[in-house]
Each structure stands twice: as C-alpha cells, then as structure tokens.
Prior knowledge:
two-stranded antiparallel ribbon, mainly alpha, 4 strands, 2% strand
Amino acid sequence: MEKLFKLQENGTTYQREILAGLTTFLTMAYILAVNPGMLGLLGDGMTPQAVFTATAIASAIATLVMAFFANLPVALAPGMGLNAFFTFTVCMGMGLSWKIALTAVFLEGIVFIILSLFNVREAIIKAIPANLKKAVAVGIGLFIALIGFSNAGIVIQGQGTVVGLGEMGINAPLLAFIGLIIISVLYVLKVPGAILIGIIAATIIGIPMGITQVAEGWKPFSVPSAPLFFQFDFTPATILTFKFFIVFFTFLFVDIFDTIGTLVGVTTQAKLIDKDGNIPNVKQALIADAVGTVAGAALGTSTVTSYVESSAGVAAGGRTGLTSFTTAILFLLALFLSPLFLLIPGAATAPALIFVGFLMMQPVTGIDFTDPTEGIPAFLAIVMMPFAYSIAEGIVYGVLSYVVLKVAARKFQDITVVTWVLFVIFILRFFLH
C-alpha cells in the first residue's frame, strides 16, 4: 500500500486516507438516490433500480481507475447537471430516446479518451492562467456551498427575488445549521474527522426531528438489480444529424470543463499542485474520468465526472489514491447496503458542503486583483460558477474576459496558443447552442 499510494511522501496515513474516503463518499452518496430518481422518470425500461446499480458500479470503476492510475483523492460519479440535461433536455425536451442519449454519452467518452491520450486536455489545463486557476478553486467553493445551502432549504427562490432565505425555524434548515455549528466547533478544536462526525451527528439528531426517516420494518440489506448493459442506438439516420451533434457536443463540453475545474480546485485545496500550478498525474486523472464516462454509458447512466464533493475528503486529510480507493469500495458496498446510507438526509450532508466552501475560499488571497487584466477574469470565473450553477460556465467567462482584456491592454505575450484556441471554441459555442 505504501509503495502503491506513497502515503509518507504525501504526508498522510492509512487512517486519515480511509476517513477521508468515507467522508467523500458520504457527501456524494446522494447521487445514488438522485440519479435513479431522475433518470428513472424516463421509463421504457430505464427503471430506478437499474439506474441505481449502474450509478454505483460506474462510480466505483471510475474511482478505482483514479485511485490506481492517478493516485489522486478524487472520486467520480454521474454528474449533477449532466443527468438533468440528459433527462429533461435531451429526452423530454428534444424528444430523443434514452438509448440515443446514452449513445451520445458513450461517443463523448470515446472522444474524451482520445483527447486525453494525446494530451489535449492536459494542454488545456496548463493553458489556464495561474490567477484563473486560483479563481476556479474559489468559485467551486462558492458553488459547492450554494449546493449545500440549497439542499438544506436555507437558500430558496425568493418571492420577487432570484434567491431568498428559507425559514430557519423549520426542521431541515435548522438541522443543517446545527450540523454546521458542530463541524465548525470540532474544526476549531482540531478534532480529526470533524466533517464526518458532523454528518453522523446531524443524521442522529435528525431522527427525533423527523428528518432522518427510519421506516417501519426497515432492513439494512438489499439485493442489487441488473444494470442496462450496452443499450445504444447507432442508427445512422439518428446519430448523423445536427440535433445529435448538439447533444454530443454539449455533453463533451460540459464534461471536459467540469472535470478540469474540479481537478484544479480539489488539487489546489489539497496543495498537490507544483509551484508552476501543474497537477500531478493529470493525464491519468483525465483518462480515469473518460473511462468512467464510457463505463457509465455502457451500464446505463449519464456522464460520469470528477466530483467537487471530493473536496470534503481533502478537507478531512485525503491526499492520495487510497482516499479514492476507499470511496470506490463504499460505492460497491452501497449496492447491498442502500437502505443504510439512504438514511442520511440531505440536511445532514449540507453542512459539510457549506464548510468545504469556506475551506476553498483560501486561494482568493493569492489572486492579483491589482491588475485588472488578471483580477476581472478571476472575479468573473468566481461569481459565474454559483450564479450560473455551473463550473464550466465560470471557466468560459473567465477565459473569454482574460483574452479580451489582455488584448485591450496589448499584453499579447500573456496569451498562450491554447488559450486562443479555447477563446475561439467558447465563442463558437454560443452560436452552436
């Protein structure tokens, strides 16, 4: 294990890595409930039970590849947002079958692997300016905190306003606030595993509050259903169309830049990047993500991607692939213990996400806001992630503004060739939407 994951070299221990993996799993385990509920709406053989199995197995496969191939504390699962696009836009909105949607995801994953093998995605990551990389980490922090606030009902859609404050006196927001206080106090007291302890404590407290639901006759074990193997539709008349291309391109675009944003943010928080801002084993990490997408499509679920919730595990001390390995094993165990982990309500994991948002704010102090050609793009990248509810959009507006302002200031030497290519692609994307 030591030789495989290099624990001493990364200043960590077995206990810390396993605890971090468990923490990551608990903060992202909601996908095992959300994904089947969402894709299961499509019917026609796409059952929640089959999607649950596909979600667990695909997440485990992708995370194991990340653990052994890249040795990074990053877990993967079907992406939130991408599953909504799959269900509500592609299938329900555009009228395409879920088999065609899976085909688009599968082909996107193949292209993703090719781009990774030829270092195209690695070049993209290296092309992101240093200040923008820091901004991405901060933006992800705000984004993940917003997810936590929203999941708990602390932040809601306001009456006559875009957002508003929920009723703090009712159960879910109150439980999340209690959990946040527990985590914060334990963190200040430097108690190991503060985030995990907070999640467990909030889950237990949620029982008398009626939030943690324990059904009568509840049993912790279940037998997994079979996933939907290789349910693709390669009919030329269907896939050789502009509509299919738009679906394929959207999946590819969001997957690439969500992954890049997550890897930059999580590795920055873990202090794994070098002095030049490069991520260790980034090529292997990108391939793990792409393999997960292909495996997920073959099993019957939407795009698998690196999860920002991995930040929770990093905050708990995760630094190596042993964290990912632990998370992957728990995904496999979840196949048989789904009733157990589904007891954990969103209000109990929400405070962990909020607290991680605080931890990820720290790189903001290293951003050069005195230079407007650096500060404005960083600002836009930060705010667009939570406001657009998309990591990818934050990167888009950060890069676009960076190039425009550098050109305006005649600082052409600051713009790399790859950054110019990204600029053109992002501009074209607006016309292809």
